[in-house]
Amino acid sequence: MTLRLRVATRKGLFTLTHRSGKWQIGEPAFLGDPVSMMLDDPRDGTLYAALNLGHFGVKLHRSRDAGGTWEELEAPTYPTQPEGAAGPPWKLVQIWSLEAGTTSEPGVLWAGTIPGGLFRSDDHGKTWQLNRPLWDCPDRLGWFGGGYDAPGIHSIIVDPRNGKRVALGISCGGVWQTEDGGGTWRNVARGMRAGFMPPEQAGDPNIQDPHRVVASPGEPDTLWSQHHSGIFHRPAGAPEWNEITTAPISNFGFAVASHPTDPKTAWFVPAMSDQKRVPVGGRLVVNRTRDGGRTFETLAKGLPQHACYDLVYRHGLDVDGTGRWLAVGSTSGGLWLSGDQGDSWESVAGNLPPVYAVRFAN
Amino acid sequence: MPKVIFASHVQRHVPAPDRVVDGGTVRTALDAVFADNRPLRGYVLDDQGHLRKHVVIFVDGARVTDREGLSEHVRPDSEIYVLQALSGG
After folding, report:
1. Which end of chain A is more exposed for a tag (fewer CB within 10 A), N or C?
2. Which of B13, B40, B47 best tests the A interface by mutation, with the highest count of A CBs <10 A?
3. Closest CA to A125 of A211, A15, A37
């Protein structure tokens, strides 16, 4: 099977294929248009692309032939805003995350958005419904924007064993979980610490900024987060998150990827700090732990080690379904691939538009 | 009847031919267009039916300022231009 990587950028959706030992980049789809997220649905091969057109709003497109041809779908739409409703306007700003349901729920898709609404489709993206229990939860009005004017859902983790169990990462609203398909939600961010808040509010689960939240599909109860204030880990069954302070170079960053079957293995891309969102010392590196965050290795072979100012944003790091291949894309348009779990890297493209997301088509 | 003219920029994404429609206000004229061209609506109006932040409309040379209600009156011979705003990049 040919390995494929999708790269969503500010100016189009790129596809790379791995043939005869080489990565080849194809002609982009939606050239010129910002693509905020994409999804290769592993259940039926359908490809989805969410656009964020500067003038004309958020659009959703679907391809049933792996990107050969596209059809536009109606994008998720917020219901009519009641007069005087508090919080951000009920207007779709961006599709920030897009995930498939389980194999036993064909056609089910989840979309996380700015300004903080979660949408579900039961018909392969043809129609969408806002999840009202989460949207109507009074705690939502305590969320705030992280990097955007309004809060947003950037991480959706569907338990492959049970599609009614879904976890969300929200900037800035913490981590939320449902056990009943979205009928009820609870905040599960206890243990996270927000250094950007007044001290007495630093532990408030509802204002946490988990830049990204991921889990191993093989062990989805163990969660990893690259948070605004550090790296956090919640092992399966643990009552709260633990802060991991052992990462070398820096504990600031946006991206994290979790091994598909080994929940103790995860990768991070450190950046200098909140105030200086660039690699430390001009050297791009990846940190890898194989023991649940007790120790880390810093991986740099093949990555730029001089005068590099590439930032890897929250969806700019991905691992494939085998756990062997990794991809890193930067907001400066750099793209690196590793076929050995990060031990060594190859620069595949250096002048792409700013990269919003990289995803292997598993 | 007023004529509604769409900038070429939007036509890159969705068909938007010029239309002569019934309508006494910008809102009713646009509604008449969208009744036959539903996909176009989401390119011009947002979730709440307001004019998108980076879209502008001119009626006979005057920029529409009621961006939520689109209540400006139009004459039978008015020309309604729907354009992308430079604020959108």
Report:
1. N
2. B47
3. A37
Are A176 and A163 spatial neighbours (Cβ–Cβ below 8 Å)? no
Which of A139, A240, A228, A140 has the alpha carbon at shortest distance from A190? A240
Show the tokens assigned to A41.
Answer: 């649905």
What whole-number distance in Å separates Cα of residue A214 and Cα of residue A225?
A: 7
pLDDT at A272 over 70: yes
User: pLDDT tens across A218-245, in order?
Assistant: 999 999 999 999 999 999 999 999 999 9
The upper half-sphere exposure of residue A220, i.e. CA atoms within 13 Å in the direction of its Cβ, equals 16
Q: Closest approach of chain B CAs to the CA of A93, in angstroms?
A: 10
pTM of this prediction? Answer: 0.97
Cα-Cα-Cα-Cα torsion A197, A200, A204, A206, nearest 10 degrees, comes to -50
Q: What is the DSSP letter of B25?
A: B
DSSP per-residue codes, A97-116 = EEEE--TTSTT-EEEEEETS
B42, B48, B85 ranked by CB distance to A55: nearest? B85
Phi-psi region of A57 (alpha: psi -120 to 50; beta: other; left: phi over 0): left
Superfamily of domain B3-84: Beta-grasp domain (3.10.20.30)
Interface of B with A (CB under 8 A): 9-10, 13-14, 39, 42-44, 46-48, 50, 52, 54-55, 84-85, 88-89
User: 10 Å Cβ neighbour count for A294?
Assistant: 10
pLDDT of residue B89: 61
CA nearest neighbour of A267 among A318, A191, A311: A318
Chain A positions touching B54 (Cβ under 8 A) are 54-56
Q: What does the buried/exposed string (b/e) look like for A307-329 if buried means 16 or more CB atoms within 10 Å of the residue's CB?
A: ebbbbbbbbbbbbbeebebbbbb
